[in-house]
Amino acid sequence: MKLSRLLTGLFLIGLTFNPIAVKAQLPQANQIREGKTAKNQSLDSSKLRVGVAGEPPGVITSNAQSDRSLTGIVIEIWKELAKELDLDYELIYHHSISEVLKKLAAEEINLAIGDISITDQRIIRFDFTQPISRHDLTILVPSQGPTLWSVIKPFLGRAFLSSIALIFLCLFIVGNLLWLAEHREHREHFPKSYVKGVSEGMWCALATFSTVGYGDRYPVTLIGRCISGIWMLISLAAVTSLTAGIATTLAVAFSAQAAQEWKKPSDLQGVRLAALSSLTSESRAVEWAQYYQARVTPVEHLSEAVSLLKENQVDGIITARLILEHYLQENPQAPYELVRFNLGTQNYGIALTPNSDLTRKLNEKILSIELQIRFQEIRENWLKLKPNS
Fold first, then answer.
1. Which of 118, 13, 103, 16 is nearest to 52 (CA)?
2. Nearest 5 degrees, angle CA 307-CA 308-CA 312?
3. Most buried by CB count within 10 Å: which residue of 17, 162, 203, 279?
4. Counting Cβ atoms within 10 Å, is residue 211 exposed (0-12), middle (13-18) or buried (19+)?
5. Is there a contact between 118 and 111 (Cβ–Cβ < 8 Å)?
6. Residue 95 contacts residue 37 (beta carbons within 8 Å)
7. What are phi and psi of 274, to 5 degrees?
8. Which comes out higher in pLDDT, residue 313 or 38?
């Protein structure tokens, strides 16, 4: 018993005169706690830090240092959402999608808006809202003026040549019928010789067909006039159809058509395309282009892609049709145009830190009918489009 009391007393005396071991652990614990606080200090504040990146007309900025200069479709949609949820926030502009996603991954911002496409790779790393916009993907290509071959080629098509052959066959038949009906009683206009007589008959049929009616050759017999009358009625319908066909052929021949060999997405095999994409994670534009076996060069900005196109390092630029149409609208003299097909669609949403409390709240508002209508009004106001366009 005495030995036990002695050992206990010695232990207490040791703690009293050697507090270093206990106190040494306190600063370490405080440092860890302070480190966690510093990391999440910006996210724990009441004001949301909203990262912004993208191309016009989704995101338009004239001064990257001031959020008041940020405008565009996505910015106005976010403002509507923030107003509905009574959120206090600040907009922080970033120069690329890669940059804003890095900030979001490091939890330096709460969420990111702009041209942020929803992909299977990104939903693993971040929370995403329901799509706030959906756009078709298409390709910007250099405009090609009419060449000699492009002018001649439509006239060598099966439709045009078959129409000409049918007209010639009809003229030959009508010329023969007129000669058979007239060459005995009207040899002055329709000679007895078959070759000369039929050629005169074809000339008469051609003058009737073209509605010129020179009057230098005409039938005098009853049968000849009946044949000419029937041919006149046929010519009325034939001329209308032929004129429309020739007009269409001429329009195709002399119009400047971009990438005439690209008529469908499957024609893109081996084509060099610049795709607007984050360099750290692929966008739908890259995925669709690779699906059709195009040779893809990812770029961060449309200006970079246009430079590659000017230098003939790529054959076209693939991204959202809305972005390309806005570029052409702002640069009407640019020697580019869009192909006449779409490759697919791309959904854009709001990216948030994983397990964010805001995700569900934002989704509830995004899916509401009232805000869906308001979003559509915002797009129409920016694009000057009618509801059905």
1. 103
2. 115
3. 203
4. exposed
5. no
6. no
7. -90, 130
8. 313
Beta bridge partners of 28: none
The closest of 363, 323, 332 to 97, measured between CA atoms, is 323
* H/E element, 139: strand 133-142
| Count of Cβ atoms closer than 10 Å to residue 257 Cβ | 17
User: What is the crossing angle of helices 158-182 and 194-209, to 10°?
Assistant: 120
* Tens digit of each residue's pLDDT (9 = 90 or more) over 262-277: 888 999 999 999 998 8
Nearest-Å Rg of the Cα atoms of the chain is 38
Q: What is the pLDDT of residues 109-150, one digit of tens each?
A: 999 999 999 998 899 999 999 999 999 999 999 987 656 676
φ, ψ (nearest 5 deg) of residue 344: 175, -165
Residue 77 pLDDT more than 70?
A: yes
- pTM exceeds cut of 0.90: no
Strand order in the sheet with 48-53: 89-93, 48-53, 111-114, 351-352, 127-128
Q: How far is the C-alpha of 121 from the C-alpha of 234, rounded, in Å? A: 65
Helix axis angle for 369-383 and 73-85, nearest 10°, is 150
| pLDDT value, residue 82 | 95
Q: Who contacts 47 (Cβ-Cβ below 8 Å, separation ≥6)?
A: 88, 89, 90
Backbone phi and psi for residue 370, each to the nearest 5 degrees, phi listed first: -60, -45
Q: pLDDT tens for residues 173-208?
A: 988 998 888 888 877 778 888 888 888 888 888 888
Mean of the per-residue pLDDT values of the chain: 80
pLDDT digits (tens, 9 = 90+) for 286-296: 989 999 999 99
27-68 per-position pLDDT tens digit:
433 332 333 333 444 444 579 999 999 999 999 987 545 445
Does residue 1 carry a pLDDT above 60? Answer: no
Cis peptide before 57 (omega within 30 of 0): yes
Closest listed residue to residue 284, CA positions, set 344, 342, 349, 340: 344
Residue with token string 């002018």 = 151
Nearest of 156, 54, 62 to residue 98 by alpha carbon: 54
Report the distance separating Cα 364 and Cα 310, nearest Å.
45
Between the two ends of the chain, the Cα-to-Cα distance in Å is 97
